[in-house]
Design goal:
alpha/beta; single chain; 33% strand; 24 strands; 228 residues; disordered N terminus; 22% helix
């Protein structure tokens, strides 16, 4: 489906409507498209690029969101920039230069962002932009290892819930640094092997198994053979 076709889905236009009218997208399931300056409501958006949109009661997954107004929505694994968000839920995302109010935030990294009356869990707040380009690869490696290992193994013990470290989320927009951090994340991660073989299949497909060192079989922690 082309971009033009997608942006017209759910578009309710009157006969005398001019071309300057803002398109309205309602109760749609869209993915892998770009939408500019639209009103979006009660929809599911996956892997979308959204700019200048008014979004209400939507589910946003793996989206790049710029200069939007979001209300009563759920966002997961999104990059959110220059956006105002109210009464929403955000998880495993990065928010920069935005305003967040009355929302629930989980495993999210803020970069120079204001947030008020928000419930936060496992979030990090960066007041100034990262300047990792000033550091050598060896120093970045030490920084990433310290942050990631302390997140996954606080006090030297494996965390009961292995959530994505905030530094990994914050680096998603930089392919080089993100790849460096993800490799360390995979090495530090403890894979809980139960009956969910689909997890193993997914990791094998992403090439992560070659970096994994720790597996948890039931309640026993074993090492794959490499040094920690």
């Amino acid at each position: 489906m082309s971009e033009a076709q997608t942006t017209k889905i759910g578009y309710h236009a009157s006969e005398d409507e001019s071309e300057d009218e803002v398109p309205v997208i309602h109760k749609c399931d869209l993915r892998k498209q770009s939408i500019d300056c639209a009103i979006i409501s009660d929809s599911v958006l996956r892997t979308m690029k959204l700019s200048g949109c008014d979004i209400v009661r939507a589910v946003l997954i793996d989206c790049d969101i710029r200069a939007c107004v979001i209300t009563s929505s759920n966002a997961s694994r999104c990059e959110i920039v220059d956006t105002s968000m109210d009464e929403s839920r955000v998880s495993d995302s990065r928010i920069a230069h935005s305003m967040i109010n009355d929302s629930k935030l989980t495993a999210t990294t803020f970069v120079m962002t204001e947030h008020q009356k928000c419930s936060m869990s496992q979030c990090s707040d960066i007041l100034t932009p990262l300047a990792l380009e000033r550091f050598s690869p060896e120093l970045r490696d030490h920084i990433f290892k310290f942050s990631i290992w302390n997140h996954l193994r606080p006090n030297g013990q494996v965390a009961e819930e292995q959530t994505t470290p905030p530094i990994v989320i914050a680096l998603r927009r930089n392919k080089v640094y993100y790849a460096e951090a993800v490799k360390i994340y995979q090495q530090a991660y403890t894979l809980n092997v139960n009956d969910e073989t689909r997890v193993l299949d997914q990791l094998a497909g992403e090439g992560a198994l070659k970096n994994l060192r720790y597996f948890k079989l039931g309640y026993v922690l074993v090492c794959s053979g490499r040094n920690a």
